[in-house]
Amino acid sequence: MTATVGVERARETLRERFGAADAPAAVASAPGRVNLIGGHTDYNDGFVLPAAIDRRTVAAARPRGDRTVRVHTTDFDATATFDLDGIEPTDEATWSDYPKGVAQHLLARGHAVGGADLALVGGVPMGAGLSSSAAVEVATAAALTAAHGVDPGDELVDVCWEAETGFVGLSCGIMDQYTSVHGEPDSALFLDCRSRDHEAVPLPADEATLVVTDTNVRRELVSSTYNDRVATCRAAAEHFDSVLDHPVDALRDVSVAEFEAHESTLSDSFRKRARHVVTENDRVRAATSALRDGRLERVGALLDASHASLRDDYEVSVPELEAVVDVAGDLAGVYGSRLIGAGFGGCVLSLVRPDAVEAVTDAIETGYRERAHTDPDVHVCDPAAGVRHHE
Ligand code: GLA
Questions:
Q1: Cα 173 to Cα 182: distance, rounded to the nearest angstrom
Q2: Confidence of residue 283 (pLDDT cuts 50, 70, 90)
Q3: What residues does 80 pair with on adjacent strands?
Q4: pLDDT at residue 220 above 90?
Q5: Which of 290, 295, 289, 266 is nearest to 278 (CA)?
Q6: Do the Cβ atoms of 28 and 58 come closer than 8 Å?
Q7: Which member of 88, 247, 377, 384 has the greatest number of CB atoms within 10 A?
Q8: Which residues neighbour 334 within 8 Å (Cβ) at sequence distance 6 or greater?
Q9: Which pairing describes strands 209-218 and 197-202: parallel, antiparallel, or unpaired?
Q10: Helix or strand run (H / E) with residue 121
């Protein structure tokens, strides 16, 4: 579904579900993302190299004169209603927690939105590690504020991140929301998650194509395992703070040499988790400079190394992800592949030579089916712009 189709569908959904109205709808769309490299570094104040992709979620919002929000999602054909003065999460996590969390955190930061009727049309595959939730958050926040003539400015990223961490309860880093807001066409973003500065790194369409294979495997308890990794990294950072002669606020502050000098003081599992993060930050910097120089073979080798580290040290892979990485690893025209997102299922990103995309896609589909006995969904993605308002 193109963004234009999504925009029309969102406007229609608003009319069908909530009736015609004089007030015009404010419509915004926001993309999902892939992350070329920098797995599980964002919540360690580290570096990432994501790109927003041409899969977008659209939100259309019409202001109401009261404090009620009604929101309909076409993804689940479901409607939720809540009052801005008493926003509560549902007992079992569900789609409506995202618009609720966004509304709550807009208000908490003093952005005076009022009630609204909202329609959401998802265009990012869900649960695949492509940040469908960030796309919902950013599109909702952009449409809801525009409907009320409010400009959240730079706080759009914070509001959406706070919705995810404070309301939904995933202790994630800033990468997904940041990329969904700031993505740039034909580029990846080299993002410093501590300073929150980014530089666009060109990803020319004639040099490399992003091929994303969704294993269609979704594991339970991803969020508790994820939060567990976050806690381990914090504890490891505290340990380094006590043994190094400079302050360590996060694993970002530990160099590979410092890690190696002190790794024997860590338990086995802390050592592996910390080694992944510390070495991954180096790989992100190396991949960024290789991409700038057009050294795609080198970028690919770093993607492969990132994947091995996520599998062996961070331990977030599963057999289905391994099946895709194995199949892709044998194919001509594949520079490199790695699992993206939190892990435990979801997607593998392969960086592919453009002239090989069709052959690679076919071979991954066949190879994965043979090994995993189920079909993958292969998405060929273009790097795209972040959040947009639609007239
Ligand atoms: C999830 C989180 C991100 C990031 C990745 C792993 O997608 O939402 O913040 O931590 O996992 O890199």
A1: 15
A2: very high
A3: 71
A4: no
A5: 266
A6: yes
A7: 384
A8: 300, 328, 350, 351, 352, 353, 356, 360
A9: unpaired
A10: strand 116-121
Partner residues linked to 52 by β-bridges: 33
Give yes or no for residue 340 CB within 6 A of ligand 1. Answer: no
Contact 307, 324 (CB under 8 A): no
Pocket test for ligand 1, best of 124, 138, 172 (most atoms within 8 A of CB): 172
Contacts of 6 (CB under 8 A, 6+ apart): 29, 56, 57, 58, 121, 123
The pair of structure tokens assigned to 281 is 């930050």
Is any ligand 1 atom within 6 A of the Cβ of residue 314?
Answer: no
DSSP annotation of 149? T
Look at ligand 1, atom 10, and give the residue with the nearest C-alpha: 40
Mean pLDDT score of the chain, rounded to an integer? 95
Structural domains of the chain in order of their starting residue, each with its CATH number: 3-203 (3.30.230.10)
Dist CA 102 CA 136 (whole Å): 9
Range with the lowest mean pLDDT among 9-23, 109-123, 272-286, 339-353? Answer: 9-23
Atom of ligand 1 nearest to the CA of 170: 8
Contact between residue 72 and residue 58 where contact means Cβ atoms under 8 Å apart:
no
**Quick one: pLDDT band at residue 127, thresholds 50, 70, 90?**
confident
Residue 391 above 90 pLDDT?
no
pLDDT digits (tens, 9 = 90+) for 167-207: 888 889 999 999 999 999 999 999 999 999 999 999 988 99
> Does 386 contact ligand 1 (Cβ within 6 A)?
no
Mean pLDDT of 262-275: 96
Alpha-carbon distance 178 to 158, whole Å? 8
Matching residue, tokens 């360690």: 44
Residue 89: predicted pLDDT? 78
Q: Is 300 in the pocket of ligand 1 (CB under 6 A)?
A: no
To the query of whether residue 176 is one of the catalytic residues in this protein, the response is yes
Q: Residue 221: what pLDDT?
A: 65
